[in-house]
């Protein structure tokens, strides 16, 4: 059994190496660099509790005596703090790693939520048609008339009004996920609906209807696997947009609380010290955010071209 499994794994690996997508990946040095940068930042953020030099979430380990220490290569720098410290004495490198962990979690979770919601509504709209199709698409068109950041601000404002401050701070991350996810579902719904309209008239769907399969099984067993091609590209690009949206909301003070800072929160905190000489408090989180978003965007653009046969 293990020999068969190993043979299948080797066969899949061989097919992947010989595929057009892998050849496209190998032929672009910029994409390879973007993939390495994304992987390093994601791994560093995910395992920040282990890899970070300091635990910035442990207040007992932070000393105000170390506050506003410049980066190690500047005068008065400290070898314990490679990128310096903030006004509370937190190590900036560790704070960036922990902040990127929050930003990536919000980004991935909100994209996953938007994908599930959008794909489900797109399948229902395209397969059922009629009133449901009209209602879902009109709702999507209304939402498209507003910027995503305004939708997220509206949803966050509703929760702030419905919950007390303490409860909202405890649920702030999940409120962000819901707000950003509800801002991005439209692209998935419209894409899946268009593909479903094409697929539902094909012979294999008609054959499934003749055999007596219920619509739910027809949609998720037969149609869904054939309409998911563009979703990976949309999800990759939306991941960068979700991270930017979360950072924007946190910079405006309506995102995650300062006790659990994201990259946007770190930039907002450091913005107060930008013109007082402590530039590293806001510059380094800003650079980390820009590099992460750029790398993810480059991967999204490459996926879009690699999965489009007309552009190969």
- Radius of gyration over all CA atoms, rounded: 23 Å
Query: From the helix content, strand content and strand pairing, which structural class follows?
Result: mainly alpha
Number of strands: 0
- Termini gap: 38 Å
Q: What is the tally of helical segments? A: 14
Percentage of residues in helical conformation:
over 70%
CATH level 3 topology of one domain: MetI-like fold
**Low-pLDDT stretches:** none
Percent in strands: under 5%
Sheet having the most strands: none
**What general form does the structure show?**
globular
Overall pLDDT score: 85
Give the quaternary arrangement of the chains: single chain
The CATH superfamily title of one domain: MetI-like
Encode the helix/strand succession as letters: HHHHHHHHHHHHHH
CATH class of one domain reads Mainly Alpha
CATH architecture heading of one domain: Orthogonal Bundle
């Amino acid at each position: 059994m293990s020999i068969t499994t190993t043979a299948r794994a080797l066969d899949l690996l061989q097919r992947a190496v010989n595929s057009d997508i892998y050849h496209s990946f190998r032929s672009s040095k910029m994409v390879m660099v973007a993939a390495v940068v994304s992987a390093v930042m994601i791994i560093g953020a995910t395992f920040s509790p282990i890899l970070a030099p300091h635990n910035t979430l442990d207040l007992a380990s932070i000393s105000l005596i170390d506050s506003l220490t410049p980066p190690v290569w500047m005068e008065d720098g400290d070898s314990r703090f490679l990128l310096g410290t903030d006004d509370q004495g937190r190590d900036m490198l560790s704070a960036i790693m922990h902040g990127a962990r929050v930003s990536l979690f919000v980004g991935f979770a909100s994209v996953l939520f938007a994908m599930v919601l959008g794909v489900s509504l797109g399948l229902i709209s395209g397969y059922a048609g009629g009133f449901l199709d009209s209602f879902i698409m009109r709702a999507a068109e209304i939402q498209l008339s507003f910027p995503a950041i305004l939708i997220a601000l509206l949803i966050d404002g509703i929760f702030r009004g419905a919950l007390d401050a303490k409860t909202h701070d405890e649920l702030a991350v999940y409120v962000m996920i819901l707000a950003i996810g509800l801002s991005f579902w439209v692209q998935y719904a419209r894409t899946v609906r268009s593909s479903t309209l094409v697929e539902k008239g094909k012979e294999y769907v008609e054959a499934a209807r003749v055999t007596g399969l219920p619509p739910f099984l027809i949609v998720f067993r037969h149609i869904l696997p054939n309409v998911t091609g563009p979703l990976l590209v949309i999800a990759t690009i939306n991941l960068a947009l979700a991270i930017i949206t979360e950072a924007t909301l946190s910079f405006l003070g309506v995102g995650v609380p300062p006790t659990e800072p994201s990259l946007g929160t770190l930039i907002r905190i450091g913005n107060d010290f930008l013109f007082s000489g402590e530039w590293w408090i806001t510059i380094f989180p800003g650079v980390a955010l820009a590099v992460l978003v750029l790398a993810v965007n480059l991967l999204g653009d490459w996926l879009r071209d690699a999965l489009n046969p007309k552009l190969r």
